[in-house]
Amino acid sequence: MMFLVAANLYGQKQGNIWMFGQGAAINFNSGTPVSFPGSEVYGEPSAPGDYGYSEGCTSISDVNGNLLFYSNGDKVWNSRNQVMPHGDSLFGFYSSTTAALAIPVPLSDSLYYLFTTDGLERYLHHGLCYSLINMCEDQGLGDVIENQKNIHLLDIADEKLCAVALPDGTGVWLIAHKHFTNSFYAYLITPTGINPPIISNVGSVHTGSMGFYQGYGTAIGQMKASSDGKRLGLVFSNVTPSVAEVFDFDAASGVVSNVIGLQASNNEYGLEFSPDNTKLYTTNMSGLYQFDLAAGSPAAINASMTQITSAGCIPGPLQLGPDGKIYVARCTYVVGIIYKPNSPGLSCTFVNNGVNLTPGGHSTSLPSFIAGFQYHNDRIHSCGAASAGPDHPPTTLWEYPDMFSSAITIGTDGEMNNASLLLFNMIGQEVMNQRNLSGRQVTLDASNLSAGVYILQLTEDSTTITRKILVVR
What phi, psi does 194 have (nearest 5°)? Predict the structure, then answer.
């Protein structure tokens, strides 16, 4: 068995490296987007009718903007552009709109969920699944935990995912949509796992004619949350007319409500909110459009629609950047930029040739992130390393060794006094305890624990000091 320990920190550069397209990549760490080659993301058609280029993907970095891993839904690569151990044969499909979305486990600096969606070309066969990645494995390069891989969450899920972080960092909402229904599925991810979904039935039923992939063709198109987590928007096409809608989202309850239908036609695909949440942008075959969500009534919002450019691109996703600009896939070797996305109409300043991807590749994709880059995790600790530290009350935990057969040593950075170490399973049941502890370390017998995810809690005088996530396998 092996225990893996995580800590609760905070960072702001987790979205600074974008790996996408056909071997394309962008680095935002200098404050200006810089293209560089090296991404292993490519489309890999294997059957008639498969789309020829990479479409959906995700990437995530540490607090300092150093790449950790990225995925196209089929595979997950580490920072050295190598497929992680157990990182192939994932149930996502590279041509799904949101083929993959990486979300840190709350209160963890080393565990990450990788959510995947299947594609319409596969009739959404695998639906929504997740795999758990431990960045303490493979000498810090990461490993997909073998018995936590391709775990099924939702049948016949659309090619749509988005995520909203709770302001205090204790949870993240993952939001999906079930095809052939008008049902949103909002899963609250907490340190103890993924909660059952909150289901909201609102908006259009996602279906279409039987002539295009037997009605699965309408699964495409982006779904996004606003940076403040108060609104959702989505589009889908392969019906006439196409559909574009915006909704209210309640981050306290996970409920989606109050649909507003937007003008849409000609294969809607891309969608993104401005940083100040007052503007909504969409793309279709006819170009790029802006809606003013602050205009008032639904009629006023629709009347505010402004065509920003007539240059179309399908698929043409949009993605808010860490610099506050919106990036627009152009189906070529450039990425467009909306430089002032909070500004009304043409004053938003769109430039078609914003970033030249060469010597990268053709872009019909952009990576997916938590809305507004609201990441509340960090990844800077050396896994399992102990530190003598000064003589002070404990505030953090460490473990040693990483590999063991029946026991593990848990240590603290300060002196324990009348402390307890409690271990809980995923449904909150106490499965182990060590009480009346003093000193700096204790050995736990793990021989009777089943493989899975646990929460280790340190308390002192009935006060919770800190928690860690432990993965046993």
Answer: -105, 120
Q: Domain spanning 397-472: which CATH class is it, in words?
A: mainly beta
Instruction: Kindly state the tokens that stand for 71.
Output: 């995925």
pLDDT in tens, the chain (473 residues): 444 333 333 347 999 999 998 899 999 999 999 999 888 998 888 887 888 788 999 999 998 999 999 999 999 999 999 999 999 999 999 999 999 999 999 988 889 999 999 999 999 999 999 999 999 899 899 999 988 999 999 999 999 999 999 988 899 999 999 999 999 999 999 988 999 999 999 999 999 865 667 889 899 999 999 999 999 999 998 888 899 999 999 999 999 999 999 999 888 999 999 999 999 999 999 999 999 999 999 999 999 999 999 988 888 999 999 999 999 999 889 999 999 999 999 999 999 999 999 877 778 889 999 999 999 887 665 565 433 334 556 766 666 544 444 677 777 767 788 888 888 876 678 888 888 888 777 888 877 888 777 778 888 877 777 777 777 76
Question: What does 86-108 look like in DSSP terms, one character per residue?
Answer: T-SS-S--TTSTT-EEEEEPTT-
Q: Which residues are bridge partners to 419 per DSSP?
A: 437, 460
DSSP H or E segment with residue 43: none
In three-state secondary structure terms, 464 is: strand
What's the token pair of residue 367? 């990576």
Distance CA 248, CA 231 (A): 5
Q: CA–CA distance from 308 to each of 93, 107, 278, 328 (Å)?
A: 31, 41, 16, 12
Helix, coil or strand: residue 339: coil
CATH architecture of 17-373: 6 Propeller (2.120)
Report d(CA 394, CA 412) in Å as an integer.
Answer: 6
Q: Which long-range contacts (CB under 8 A, 24 or more apart) does 137-140 make?
A: 137/4, 137/85, 138/78, 138/84, 138/85, 140/382, 140/383
Same fold, 17-373 and 397-472: no
In DSSP notation, 425-451 reads -TTS-EEEEEEEEEEEEEEEE-TTPPS
Spatial neighbors of 30 by CB under 8 A, at least 6 apart, are: none
Contact between 450 and 472 under an 8 Å Cβ cutoff? The reply is yes
Sequence-ordered alpha helix ranges (H) in 142-284: none
Give the tokens for residue 232. 């959702």
Best CA proximity match to 310, nearest among 280, 354, 346: 346
So where are the chain's domains? 17-373, 397-472
Amino acid type, 324: G
How far is the C-alpha of 359 from the C-alpha of 197, rounded, in Å? 43
